[in-house]
């Protein structure tokens, strides 16, 4: 007979998620909790209170990242569970905070059942994952992983001219550099999917194998402005018509590359944007994402060849790469453990990729890391309509708990 699985307290999980949502709750039941704001400070204070009440040792590093540790019997690097507490403006109640509360609930369950872990367990809150107030996103985890320079990031300003460094000191969460995450047995980041796949396939758990690679370009199409009423069509150099031709060509080529490739034209600016003047310039962004870097490189080669196209409405084309990133693959053994736990608990699941960025992708450069997704209703995220059912939240945390217990038994 199979031994009864240890499960979390679902009602307690729900109450805690609602409690955190009070720190910045909006009229439409969303959340605005920008990094290092007063709402963020209050959420941090409450998180610290919960952890200290459990007897956890809470440390804060120089970036404001919080680490709450349940000590183990052996002096080994901790198992980390967590995500972030900050949100976008008018975001949802689950993005980021679910991963932190998941860690809190796992530790509470272990304490409830008088389990003394061999390996320390640390619940972590990474600072400024969203980048909604201070760009770029995933700022603190990026500094920890050596992707960003701290001195540069400290000077990043919000719309009011306040720097990241000033705001960090202002809320009282500038800790010590020696408290930074240096090593860990594993990092398990639980997150809402922020997409429609799990719900559309009626699945409860997504075992995330990687954060996909991407490339983002700015494309500039330059023509000539003339009077819209007096210039014959065959004598125009209309940058907008040329852009329309170009976009059709882009869709045709990228659409034929691979069905899993996603690509977006997210910003389009037309100049001079006067209804009586033929547009002389259009600037638009084009980004593409895929797990196979070979596909991403094909996209990059195609975009960079656009300026060499034959004449298009008499206009010139310029393509400038804004940024790119390689696919980050997570630790296969940890992915296997998550999948085994989901299977043993009888939860429907699948392997999948993340098209969005997460702290885990940076931390994975020096810590064994994996992620778990739970469904997002209608794929909604970064909005007040964001919703994951309490049942799906509970299932996800049960998988994290079971995976932690399996790691402790090794």
Q: Which key features would you list for this structure?
A:
2 domains; nine-stranded mixed beta sheet; elongated; five-stranded antiparallel beta sheet; 21% strand; Alpha-Beta Plaits; 12 helices; alpha/beta; single chain
List the helices and strands and how they pair.
Elements: H1 10-21, H2 38-53, E1 57-60, E2 66-70, E3 79-84, H3 97-112, E4 121-126, H4 139-144, H5 150-153, H6 164-170, E5 186-192, H7 197-200, E6 205-211, E7 213-222, H8 239-257, E8 262-264, E9 268-271, E10 281-290, H9 293-305, E11 316-325, E12 328-329, H10 332-344, E13 349-354, H11 359-363, E14 369-374, H12 390-408
Parallel strand pairs: 3-4, 3-5, 5-14, 6-13
Antiparallel strand pairs: 1-2, 2-4, 6-12, 6-14, 7-10, 7-11, 8-10, 9-10
Helix pairs in contact: 1-3, 3-12, 10-12
């Amino acid at each position: 007979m199979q031994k009864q699985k240890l499960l979390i307290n679902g009602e307690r999980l729900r109450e805690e998620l609602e409690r955190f949502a009070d720190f910045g709750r909006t009229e439409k039941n969303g959340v605005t909790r920008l990094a290092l704001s007063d709402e963020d400070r209050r959420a941090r204070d409450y998180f610290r209170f919960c952890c200290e009440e459990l007897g956890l040792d809470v440390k804060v590093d120089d970036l404001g990242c919080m680490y709450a540790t349940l000590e183990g019997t052996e002096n080994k690097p901790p198992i980390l569970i967590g995500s972030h507490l900050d949100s976008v403006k008018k975001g949802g109640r689950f993005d980021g905070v679910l991963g932190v509360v998941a860690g809190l609930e796992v530790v509470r369950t272990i304490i409830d059942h008088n389990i003394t872990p061999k390996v320390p367990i640390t619940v972590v809150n990474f600072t400024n994952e969203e980048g909604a107030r201070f760009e770029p996103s995933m700022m603190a985890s990026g500094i920890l992983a050596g992707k960003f320079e701290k001195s540069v990031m400290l000077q990043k300003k919000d719309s009011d001219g306040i720097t990241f460094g000033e705001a960090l000191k202002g809320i009282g969460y500038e800790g010590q550099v020696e408290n930074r995450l240096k090593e860990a047995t594993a990092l398990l980041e639980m997150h809402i999917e922020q997409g429609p796949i799990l719900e559309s396939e009626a699945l409860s758990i997504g075992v995330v194998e990687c954060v996909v690679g991407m490339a983002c370009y700015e494309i500039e199409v330059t023509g000539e402005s003339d009077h819209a009423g007096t210039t014959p069509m065959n004598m125009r150099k209309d940058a907008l018509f040329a852009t329309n031709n170009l976009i059709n060509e882009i869709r045709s080529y990228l659409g034929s590359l691979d069905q899993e490739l996603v690509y977006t034209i997210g910003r389009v600016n037309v100049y001079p944007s006067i209804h009586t003047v033929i547009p002389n310039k259009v600037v638009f962004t084009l980004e593409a994402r895929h797990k196979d870097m070979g596909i991403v490189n094909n996209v990059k080669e195609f975009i960079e060849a656009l300026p060499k196209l034959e004449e298009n409405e008499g206009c010139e084309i310029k393509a400038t790469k804004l940024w790119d990133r390689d696919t980050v693959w997570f630790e296969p053994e940890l992915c296997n453990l998550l999948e085994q736990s989901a299977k043993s608990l009888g939860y429907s699941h699948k392997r999948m990729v993340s098209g969005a960025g997460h702290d885990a992708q940076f931390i994975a450069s020096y810590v064994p890391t994996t992620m778990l997704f739970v469904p997002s209703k209608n794929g909604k995220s970064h909005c007040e309509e964001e919703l994951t059912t309490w049942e799906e939240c509970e299932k996800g945390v049960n998988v994290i708990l079971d995976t932690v217990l399996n790691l402790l038994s090794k």
